Amino acid sequence: MAVSWARRALARAGLAASRTFATEAKESEIVVEDLARRLSNVCEVSRSADVRKQHATDEGTERGMFPPDLVAFPSSTEDVSKVVEACTDLRVPMIATGALTSLEGHLRHLRGGLAIDVTKMSNILSVCAEDQTARVQAGVTRMQLNEYLRDTGLFFPVDPGADATLGGMAACRASGTNAVKYGTMRDVVGGLTAVLSGGRVVRCGGSGAARKSSTGYDLSALMVGSEGTLGVITELQVRLAGQPGATVAAVCPFETIEGAATCVAEIVQCGVPLARCELLDAVAISAVNEHSGLGLRELPTLFFEFTGSTESAVEG
Q1: 28 vs 15: CA distance, rounded Å
Q2: What are phi and psi of 139, to 5 degrees?
Q3: Reduced DSSP (H G I as helix, E B as strand, rest coil) percent helix, strand, coil of the chain, to 5
Q4: What is the pLDDT of residues 113-154, one digit of tens each?
Q5: How far apart are the C-alpha atoms of 208 and 239, rounded to whole Å?
């Protein structure tokens, strides 16, 4: 359990702070109990060891390393605002979490503190098919939104592979194999709502429906990719795309990586409707063969996906 922030919080309250380990641990426990008591009237709160370990584990870290002291489960922007306000007042460090699918060690609570789990914020607030936009809470996942859109002829195009929450995807500026056509999260987020330190709520980008706009600073782009350092994203206005009528895939091995890179550049320059493109080197292909029992040639390989209105149009 981290204790440095606890000493500061107690000092602000006018309490003396000893430097012995036992006293530091006790001080930290006092602050955690105070925070849990304040948040119990706002949202669900857990101090369970299993829940805390879960929120210290993503796809890229060992289970349970550096867990938080407390986990909060807000269900609205207002809840998040109150949670952040309480943490700011007590000087407790906080990390927002989603589907726990990241690979970069985001969930290492090096100084303990609070995990703000946004998965209960899973409402799709609105969809405007005419503008090809949707407004969602941060806990909505990519697959959840696409299932909701299935009968509209639209889909959410950014696909990082994992079924991540859109709030987490925006915070980490997720991309994926189809970024070559649809871009990254920075390209599809037209507006957002976020909670800043102290609990202040900001709304950036307006409705996000207008593709062309030069009104003020682009604060949405500033928040996207900030990885929680500027605020907790609670709602997003995202741009959608039309579902392609047909899809054709291709696997193309090359003798060299340079040859593969040149091929991609020429395809893009020729205006071929390329939807996905991924390059694996010989070492990665060997790992894929071993893991999945495939027999791909162990050479630098491009994986393509082409889309169009009809299959014949794609193949042509």
Answers
A1: 13
A2: -85, 0
A3: 35, 25, 45
A4: 899 999 999 999 999 999 999 999 999 999 999 999 999 999
A5: 8
DSSP states along 1-39: ---HHHHHHHHHTT-----SHHHHHHHHHHHHHHHHHHH
Q: What are the backbone angles phi and psi of residue 261, rounded to the nearest 5°?
A: -65, -40
> pLDDT-derived band of residue 214, with 50, 70 and 90 as boundaries?
low
- Strands 201-204 vs 189-195: parallel, antiparallel or unpaired: antiparallel
Measure CA 160 to chain center: 10
Q: Which of 68, 186, 173 is nearest to 117 (CA)?
A: 68
Question: Residue 23 has what pLDDT?
Answer: 44
Whether the per-residue pLDDT at 21 is higher than 50: the answer is no
Q: What angle do CA 224, 203, 212 make, to 5 degrees?
A: 70
How are strands ordered across the β-sheet holding 301-308? Answer: 246-253, 301-308, 274-280
Pick from 119-133, 210-224, 268-282 the range whose average pLDDT is largest: 119-133
Q: Tokens for 25?
A: 């641990």
Render 197-214 in DSSP notation, one character per residue: TTS-EEEESTTS--SS--
Q: How far is CA 155 from CA 41, 239, 296, in A?
A: 38, 9, 31
Residue 177 is which amino acid?
Answer: T
Residue 6 pLDDT more than 60?
no
| Distant-in-sequence, close-in-space partners of 107: CB < 8 Å, separation ≥ 6 | 55, 56, 57, 58, 61, 66, 95, 97, 100, 115
Note whether 188 and 182 are within 8 A (CB). Answer: yes
Residue whose C-alpha is closest to residue 240's, from 123, 129, 122, 126: 129
Distance CA 207, CA 190 (A): 7
Distance of CA 218 to the CA centre of its chain: 20
